[in-house]
Amino acid sequence: MSYVSVYENKTPRSKGLIMTGVVHAVIIGAVIAMPAIEGPDIFKGTIMAIPIPAEKPIEPVIEDKKPEVEIVRPTTRALPDRPIIMDISDPVVPVINYGNVEIKSGSGGFGEAIRLEPIKIAPDPVIVGASLNRRYAADFQPDYPVGLLRREQEGEVSVRVLVGPDGRVKDIELVKSPHEDFWSATRKQALRKWRFTPATKDGKPVESWMALKVVFKINS
Known about the structure:
Elements: H1 14-33, E1 84-87, E2 101-105, E3 110-115, E4 127-128, E5 131-132, H2 146-150, E6 155-163, E7 169-176, H3 180-193, E8 196-197, E9 199-201, E10 204-206, E11 208-216
Antiparallel strand pairs: 1-3, 2-3, 4-9, 5-8, 6-7, 6-11, 9-10
């Protein structure tokens, strides 16, 4: 079975033409009513290209490796009964400490180790200072100078005395005195009457210096 299409030529109607024109007019009016779209500004100046040099790369810092130092620690070993012979001619070879051992260089660059006796440290001496002998305490105070006593003048005399091994005063030095008469009376009494228990060193009497004060005071 076959179909045959038949087209009929018809004259266009005026109504269709009018509708077509109206549609086109509406589209054109809508396009005109749309807001204008602003495009990007066009740069009208002069563009200059300036070359920028590339930065020089930083070179890595390489630290020198510190040499390793080997520390030779002294060792302790038991000494044999016979002498030890060791070669110390090479200065690079470290000398080993064996305790109480002395190394003496010999002929041919060899050394002999000899055992030493331990060092004995003497104890500090026992020293006891001098003191006034109580048996002669009543003779310590000098006579009051007459002139100063009449003027009712008092004072204090500071002296240093050298006490001998026998307890007597061998010498006397003035430190401070308010008047010459006070010092003269003190010196005379010290050389004639003063007695002391002498200082000792490990129990033996020795001479020594000591400081003293003599007070001259009038009793009311």
